[in-house]
Each structure stands twice: as C-alpha cells, then as structure tokens.
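Troubleshooting log. The previous structure file for this entry was overwritten by mistake, so regenerating from the original sequence record. Sequence copied from the archived sheet and checked twice against the printout by T.R.
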Amino acid sequence: MRRDRIAIAYDCLFPHSTGGGERVYRSYAEHLQHRGIDVDYFTTRQWPADEAPAQDAFTVIPVTGALRLYDEKGVRRTSAALAYAWGLFRFLLRRRREYRAIIVSGLPILNVFAARAALAGSGTRIVVDYLEVWGRAQWIEYAGRVTGTVAWALQRIAVRLTPIATCHSQLTATQLQREGLRGRLAISPGLIDGDSPNRFSPEAASPPYAVYAGRHIPDKRVEVIPAAIAAAREQIPDLRLVILGSGPSTSAVDDAITAVNGEAWTEREGFVSQERLDEIMAGAALLVNPSRREGYGLVVVEASAHGTPVVLVSDPGNAATELIEAGVNGYIADSTSPSDLGDTIVRAVRGGTTLRRSARSWYESAITTRTVARTVDGILTELGSPPDPQRTADDHRAETPEGST
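Regenerated output below.
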C-alpha cells in the first residue's frame, strides 16, 4: 500500500555540503515533514562511513557511497553523476510503489532519466525541480565541446520527458520552454526560508568594507573584484574587501589581489561558520557578487535580510538580477570592468543608511510572499493535494522574522 510519503533526490545535503541547491532541498524536506508528510531524502554519503548522518525530522538515505562531485576546475564530474543516477535508479526500482511522489533535482540531468526509468508504470508522480537550465553554448563553455554537447542534448530530452517542472525564475522558465518542455510548469514565488539571517543594523561598520561569500569557481568571477575595489577606493579611500570561501579559482583571486597591491586592504577568511557569516554580512557596506550565472540568487535575500545592499553584474544567465530593485536593495553593474563595477560599488556604499533601510524593507515585504512555504504549497497543489491551511499558516508565521511588518 502506498503511504503518504514523498522522496527528494539530490546528491548533496546541507549542512554536510553547502550551496544554494543544498539549502533549497533541505528546506523542501523540512516543510513537507512539517505538513505531516513523511520524507525520504536520497543523497550521497557525505559523512564518515562509520558515522550516521545528523539526525533530521526527515529520513536521509544515501543511495551511493562518498563521491567526488567536482573536478579540479569546479566542473561536475560525469562519473559522479552516473554513479549517483545509477544508485538512485536501483533504489527506486526496489521501492517503486512506496512513494506518492518524488521531487528530483534536474542537476545533474541524469537524475531525471533514473527516476523516469525506475518509476515507469508505478503511479508515483515525478516533479523535476530545475535550479538552472542552460543553452548549448553555456554547456560547451562549461564542459567542453564534446561533453557539453552531449549534456545539452540529454538536457533537452529530459526536459521533454518532464511531466511537472518547477523553477525559480522567469529566466529558467523561458529556457525550459525554449528547450521544449511539454509538461506543466510551475514558477515558484521564491525560496526565502525562516532560517534566513535577520540581524539588522542601519549603520555599516567603519571603515566600510565590501564582502564576497561563496565558492571560487570560474562562473563566479571572484577574481574581478579586487580591481573593482581598487577603482572604488579612488573615491572611497578607506574601503576594504573581505573575500570568503575558496575553490578552484582561489589562486586567480590571490593573483588579482596582488596585481592591484590589495594585500593591505583585503581579508581572506575562507569558509566560515554561519554565526561568523552573519556577523560579517551585517557589518558590510555591500555584498558584491559578479557571477555570470545564478538560478535564483539566495545571496540577495540573505544580504537584504541584514539591510546590506547587493551589487550584481548584468548577464543573460544571471537570474539573481530579477531580485534587485535598483536603489532599493542594491544595483546592477553593466559589466565586470573595474570602472563599471567600481562605480556601482561606490553608489552602494554612498547609499548609506537610506539604502540599508530600504534593503531591509524589501526583505520584510519579500518574506511574506517569496517563501519556501508558498513554493511547497504550489508543489503539493500540482500533485493534486492542496496543503492543510493550518499547517501552511504555521509555516508562514515561522518564516516571518520577529519585528517585521
């Protein structure tokens, strides 16, 4: 007999690994569980073999052993994607009638084929959640001509096989339609969670500093920041830079700091605890993220929660720009050139208390409408079972920060 149980399939699990996708799918699991639905989370083993994963309200099931997901350039390894998809297929095949539905991440795309093959004819509903969808040129740039072309072709097939698709930006919705989506499409209202930081200070620290927080990979373009800060310092001489995180591009970032003699005004802390991240974010004059591609842009939400304005860079693959209201919670630079990005950074710093208060107001408005709870409501509605109003109301109250209006 099929139980009221929903599965989530993603090869990473927060907090064992960090990133936007990990946070999103953990939030899905927690909100579904809160609504009285049992949840199994299929992932890879990301904890020591002789230990159990951290205890959660939902059930964590490793369908493979530990995998090295990325190569030295920060590109997802094909062998790891195949291994996870094979593990997911085998597990679902054995338990194909135990789930009412499964939410499958479309990253990597092989997950979609594994779920469709294992669950064919079982009656289990499949929802594919697309954090991002790329065109052929993006795939080739990311993975090379041969691998990129194959990945793009598989993505097109998977999109056409998707019965219910969810995504989190108009950019991704347009790309899904371009890639031939035939199934139903639900665009989520947002991904703000109750765990979003909400420490707010109307004044930034003195002297002012810009912060970058995240992985150092080519698409993030972290290495352009030091030259932009150097340009901004011509107008704001005491401006400093804090770069958090690390990754394959870290050496390029360090070289960029050296190239502008930025050692004296740049701090590098690597990855830090959530408490330390909140502290740094709350004091920053701005957060700068020159990424060329984002599927949603949780960093905009997290910074705005602190009243910290955000500077992004315009790019066709950057859906995070959809969250920026110029002069309200940040600005969008035209390019990554030191002059363009540097001038935009200066505008954000000089916005001062007024910009910080409006960024916080943007967050307080967004957290009532752009939430994970409402996104989960939409998924349940697509599955034909509207959420329980009382549980939904409880979730929405939990997501509203204390003192917001």
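Residues 47 and 53 are 6 Å apart (CA to CA). Archived copy saved in two places this time.
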